[in-house]
Amino acid sequence: MEPIHSIVLPTRPQPDTLVAIFLLRTLGNEKFPGVESASIKIDATPQNESFEVALKKGILLLDVGGGPLDHHGSDTCASELVAKALGVEKDPSLKKLLSYAKRDDAEGKGTLSTDPLDRAFGLSGLVSSLNKQHSKNPQRIVDIVMPLLEAHYVAAREHHVELPQEVAEKKTKGQYSEETLRQGKKKLKVVFVVSEKPSMPTYLRSWNGARADVVVQKSEDSSRTCVITKQDTEVDLSSLAALVRMREAELRGIALETSEKELFSTGRIDMLPNWYLDPATNSLLNVGEEKDNTRIEWDEFKQIVRKGLELQFA
Questions:
Q1: How far is CA 119 from CA 103, 116, 128, 267, 271, in A?
Q2: ∠ at Cα 258 (252, 260), nearest 5°?
Q3: What is the pLDDT of residue 314?
Q4: In whole numbers, what is the pLDDT of the chain averaged over residues?
Q5: Which one, out of 12, 17, 139, 282, has a CA that is 20 to 30 A from the CA of 298?
Q6: Contact predicate 50/67, CB 8 Å
């Protein structure tokens, strides 16, 4: 069998066939050698050749020709057939991608919103616009859309596979812990973690993660530390910000010439700009250059977090 050099579609690329092509390119090279770099062609009636005969010539018939990857006449879609052929249909990293392709293909509802901006700039709307602009160049459409699908897949794989594995490793190394703290009548689940992953707080606050209300994350290579909250919990970080600012100033030998009220305020304070209380995300962020990394030791910082979240005196 020749290496796959062409993928043949029956018509211009649609979300379902684009997802199918992404799966083939990303996960299908072992089963279909060469498919990762195969060119895209359109042929609604491919020479009356069977799927197997075309495959021997290096041609992969996708959603056309009545072969195993042609969904016409069934209640499946092309991306589902490809996922099953590759044995990845149960991969949690692909769940949303496959669900999107199925809904767009079966119901024409790639974007559910009726808002005209959402529909225009949702992926289905953009694919439609690309097909109008590049009606005779399906390869161009595929080349534009593949990086978008890859970005989603990488993020989904990180969320469902890599981050859970990292959390398990951090627990064995003593770099991950969970606590329950009280802030007024609220019971807060707080996670302390040492990690370089920017997506770690998102995962830990999610349903698949620890479902944390507060994530306190320190860099592995430096003292850079941030406190990220679940916004709908409406955690009050003002007292924590004040305690952190006072201790940071003490360690840096800075005599804070500021009002007590300003210590609790959002944003930055002039004399200590490396701590930013962000009202948009309800986070306390250690910002600036390397020299601005906090001088508060990790164990002490955790103690300050405990006190700052529970002792509300702003």
A1: 15, 5, 11, 35, 47
A2: 105
A3: 44
A4: 95
A5: 282
A6: yes
